[in-house]
Each structure stands twice: as C-alpha cells, then as structure tokens.
Design a protein that fits this description.
CATH class of the largest domain: Mainly Beta
CATH superfamily of the largest domain: Jelly Rolls
CATH topology of the largest domain: Jelly Rolls
Number of domains: 3
Radius of gyration: 28 Å
Distance between the termini: 76 Å
Strand content: 15-25%
Number of strands: 14
Structural class: alpha+beta
Number of helices: 15
C-alpha cells in the first residue's frame, strides 16, 4: 500500500516534468484519493486543472485547499491560494470574506493552536479590515533560484513569505554575494526600502519555490494609520536587521552564523556619542569594548613629546577597545569620535563569555589585536614622530 502511494506521486511528478499534464493529473488524483491531507499535491492538482482549462474544477479544488490551510492555522498559505482563485475568477470576492471569517475565528481560539504570522499585519486587524486588505494585496509565485529582489533596484513594498524559503545576500566589492541569512514562512522583507528609501538594500533569492504576498506602500500606510503598533513592530524589525547586517559584514563577526550573531547582539548596549567626544583615554580601566554602528572613531596615542599619533579612523562594523579587555590592562590608546556616532558597548564579562562560546571569534579578535599592537610598537619606534604620521595616512 505504502509503495503504491509513493509510486502514484512519483509518477505524477515524472509526468509533470515531461509536460504530460493529463497523465500527471490522473496520477495526482489517485495519490490524493489515498492521501487527501497532502495539500501540496492537491494544490498541484488544482494547478493542472487550471492549465487544462477546467476552471470550475480548479476553483473548487483551490477553495478546499485554502479552507484546509486556514483551518490548520496556515493563514499565509490560504491567502496565497485565494489569490489563485481570484486570478481565474476576479468576481469570486466571497473567498476573501470566508478567509477573513476564518482569520477572526482563529484569532479567538486557544493559544495552543499554530500561531498566526509573527508580525501583526494580520493578527491585529478586524475581520472587515482584513478583508479590505486582502482585496488589494498581490500574491506572486517564484520558482527555485529566482531573484525576487535585486540590491539597488527601486522598490518600496513589503513582502511576506507565504510558503518556501529565501536567502538574503549583500553584494561585495569583489563581486558575488555575501550570504546574510535565510528567511521562511511568516518572515517579511523589504522593510529597509519602505522606511529608509526606495532602493532595495540586498538581493533576495528563492531557495525553494516560493509564494510571496506583496503589500504596497499605500496599503501598508493605510494599515499603519489604523494600527500604529504595526509601524513600531516593523521599525523594531528594521533596527534588528540593520544591526545583524552590520555584524554579518564586520571583519570581526562575519564568520558567525545568524543565531550566533543574535547571541552577540543580545549582549551589546547602544550608545549615542556626540562629535569630538572621548570614548576613553589612555590609562583608563578596560572594562568594556565597542563596535561602531555608524559614525567614525579616531584611535590615537601620545608619542614622543606628547604629540598626537593617529593609529587609524574606524567606521561601521569595526571593533575597538578590545586590547585592554583581552590583556586585562589599562587603555593603551585614546578613542574619540570625529562625528556623531552610534556605538554598541560590550561589557568585559560578556566579552569573555562570547570568546568561550565561539572559539572562532576568539582567534579573529586575537589576530586583529596582535596586528594593532605590532603597529603601535612600530609607530612608537619611528623617528621623528611626523614620519609615523605619514606611515599610517
């Protein structure tokens, strides 16, 4: 029996790959008769019915699949399937009304059920508002390996993943993409271009076949106007993503995985430092270290005759103050902002914990610190001090 069921599905997929739609449909029917809860196969069957111009049957199958998804708590998948029905029959507005009703029922049910999406774009809306939103958003399907968004292109809509998985990549100066993280069902992307500007900040690639719900700026602004908390949630997400992106591109933390970077971020405390302000001075106790979120910090020492010798100017993503924390010694240099800066402060105790948790982080930090110490000794040994300045310009 089990072998027979597998062969029906394999037979259907094989026929589908050859473009034999009628044969694929017959095999999917046999498989779905035996496995009616296999909603992905039933969805394939509905797609084949649509291709074969059996629109009424396709709509009926789509309706049953959408209803099943909604009852099981897969709200985003149900929305995506309803959009397929409306593609065939734009007058079938009742599908959104039914989905809105199920959405309301689910919102009132036990917390033990599968939760709604992790952002309150849907769960905070009334039945009427939810139905209104459904009438205006778009659902798109992308095949595996498709480029959904390209870094630098114009686009200010928010996208929510109904089904599948995407990868987020940042273009590197050397060419190619730097992997940032993967996102799955219920996750959203596009918040950077919505809040910061009309340009996409990264490439988004479909790692599997994906159903994406796209919410335009106008529609999202309407939701935010009625539910201001939605904006706060998205802004919090934006801040978290921006910090994670900074760590992913940082020479210090780029080797860490997304969950490891999250652990690092949880240990940091934000600081806003005005322009031309000392973060620390030579001789101070080394009780913490810093990562630059934005702005610039100048690192310098006092050379012979108390003349200032600049070791470097550091920007976003760079770590400083780690030498004293590693060696348990007072500060050996001065750190001063050259413009208003946002810093992330890490206490020495947390720093020590992270080095124990992530040995690869320890080796990177020690390597960078060793190079900085060597450079400092080299500069201090040069005569005159003006020559030292030229060497680090």
């Amino acid at each position: 029996m089990n072998k027979e069921r597998i062969s029906y599905k394999d037979e259907a997929l094989s026929s589908l790959s050859r473009g034999e739609w009628k044969k694929a449909l017959q095999s999917f029917r046999k498989h779905c008769d035996q496995e009616p809860t296999d909603l992905r196969s039933r969805l394939k069957m509905a797609e084949l019915l649509e291709r074969l111009e059996k629109k009424r049957e396709a709509i009926e199958e789509y309706r049953e699949v959408a209803e099943s998804y909604a009852r099981d708590g897969f709200l985003l998948r149900a929305i995506s399937v309803n959009k397929m029905i409306l593609r065939i029959d734009p007058s079938a507005k009742d599908v959104n009304a039914r989905l809105a009703q199920l959405h309301t029922e689910k919102s009132r049910e036990s917390k033990h059920l599968r939760p709604l999406p992790p952002i309150p774009l849907f769960s905070d809306l009334s039945e009427q508002e939810f139905r209104s939103m459904l009438d205006r958003v778009q659902s798109k399907t992308f095949p595996k390996d498709a480029l959904i968004c390209r870094e630098g292109e114009t686009g200010d809509s928010l996208m929510v993943i109904c089904r599948g998985e995407v990868g987020i990549y940042k273009q590197s100066p050397e060419g190619g993409g730097i992997w940032i993280r993967n996102l799955g069902e219920g996750d959203c992307f596009g918040e950077f271009s919505f809040f910061i500007g009309p340009k996409r900040r990264s490439d988004v690639k479909a790692l599997t076949e994906c159903d994406i719900l796209e919410i335009s700026r106008n529609e999202l602004e309407g939701i935010i106007k009625t539910h201001p908390r939605v904006k706060q949630v998205l802004q919090d997400l934006l801040k978290k993503r921006a910090l994670d992106l900074m760590l992913a591109l940082s020479p210090i933390f780029s080797s860490l995985s997304p969950p490891e970077r999250e652990e690092v971020l949880n240990r940091f405390r934000p600081l806003h430092i005005p322009e031309d302000t000392f973060v620390f001075k030579g001789g101070d106790l080394s009780h913490c270290l810093y990562v630059i979120q934005s702005g610039e910090v100048e690192i310098f020492i006092q050379g012979r005759r108390e003349k200032k010798v600049v070791l470097g100017r550091l920007g976003s993503g760079h770590l400083f103050g780690e030498i004293g924390a590693l060696l348990n010694t007072p500060r050996m240099a001065f750190a001063r902002t050259t413009r208003p800066s946002k810093l992330l402060k890490l206490a020495k105790e947390d720093f020590d914990d992270l080095l124990r948790l992530f040995p690869k982080l320890q080796s990177v930090v020690k390597e960078i610190s060793s190079k900085r110490l060597s450079r400092m000794r080299e500069i201090l040994s040069l005569e005159p001090v003006d020559k030292a300045k030229e060497s680090v310009a």
